[in-house]
């Protein structure tokens, strides 16, 4: 009868859609939790292979997304995040394979103790369960997040931005083909198929159905998630990252690090946004001019502007801005304590670096700066799970609970206590 014909039935509401997806995800999560490391790794290798095979198909879908995004006037930084090409897809497949090669955290005994009564207690890593990931622009997140969640034994609901819907669908389809080829449930990785923002709201209020939500995107997305969520959130806030160049820094090293930190890729969250220069550093002019020569617009405080032509005057908002573009703010500060104070006022607890030859000064910076990642004599662009040897990341967590910095396999697990007794009863 016509009433049984799916084509005549109304489309499910976002709430109904998410409820159905989470139900299937819970079933898949139970299966994944019992899946061996070898099978999970095999599934990821197959998923990577399917993405390589589908390169032309995925790039064609991405070209459609790019054309639409350009017509809508998306920023240069957003377009860079959205763009895929064979090299980027190959890197995404490499990342999946790198995750497959990692040690499985599930079942790892974190600590153990034997009680005087003979009861043995162990704290053991287990999957979180069902994870929801809400992200913008970067379609490679579809592959990265799926790989990490599967390897950590979690089912995942992926909700990408509308600007990348075709790209995400193509990557997701290839990834799932790899999973099912070795018997891992297709529902382990589900992509929310609609661009309706109400689907995000449905995910955020899915208490008991989604165990953890992870937002990856701009300030407005993260703010919405934190304001509306009724499930736990692992937040990634702005990357207002600083490089402080101490008076003791080697000038050649300082110039190389600063230019790389800002200009290697301006649209990533690990890019330097503010350069802090010790008042006693002897080569301020050469350092800032090197940044200008690399094509970066520089907005400086009064001291920096007086020293270097081509620097425009920064306003108060510049120190709190994540440009994600070829723009940097520059401030001259009174040594390491001045840098620490500036970062405390304006930083986002993401990634901050010091360039210094003086180990005592460097240790003071590393101890005092309260960021998820602090670096000595290295570019902030190393703020990446792959560069940390984690095989990829869900994001850089800037809060304090329950994970911090690049969130990879261990950050996607929780733990339970397992007790083994011989008949003990409590008196």
Give an overview in words:
By secondary structure, the chain is of the alpha/beta class. It has two domains: 13-234 and 403-419, Aldehyde Dehydrogenase, Chain A, domain 1 (3-Layer(aba) Sandwich); 241-387, Aldehyde Dehydrogenase, Chain A, domain 2 (3-Layer(aba) Sandwich), CATH 3.40.309.10. 40% of the residues lie in helices and 19% in strands. The protein contains 14 helices and 16 strands. The protein has helices spanning 14-33, 37-53, 55-71, 76-82, 86-100, 140-151, 165-180, 198-204, 219-228, 251-263, 284-293, 302-307, 335-346, 359-368; strands spanning 109-114, 120-127, 130-135, 155-159, 189-191, 212-216, 241-245, 272-278, 297-300, 312-313, 327-333, 351-355, 373-376, 395-397, 405-407, 413-420. The strands form four sheets. A seven-stranded parallel β-sheet has the order 10-9-11-8-7-12-13, with helices on both faces. Strands 5-4-3-6 form a four-stranded parallel β-sheet, sandwiched between helices. Strand 14 and strand 15 (405-407) form a beta hairpin. Helix 1 crosses helix 8, helix 3 packs antiparallel against helix 7 and helix 10 packs parallel to helix 11 (284-293). The longest helix is centred in the N-terminal third of the chain and has 20 residues, at 14-33.
Short description, anyone?
With about 425 residues, the protein is of the alpha/beta class.
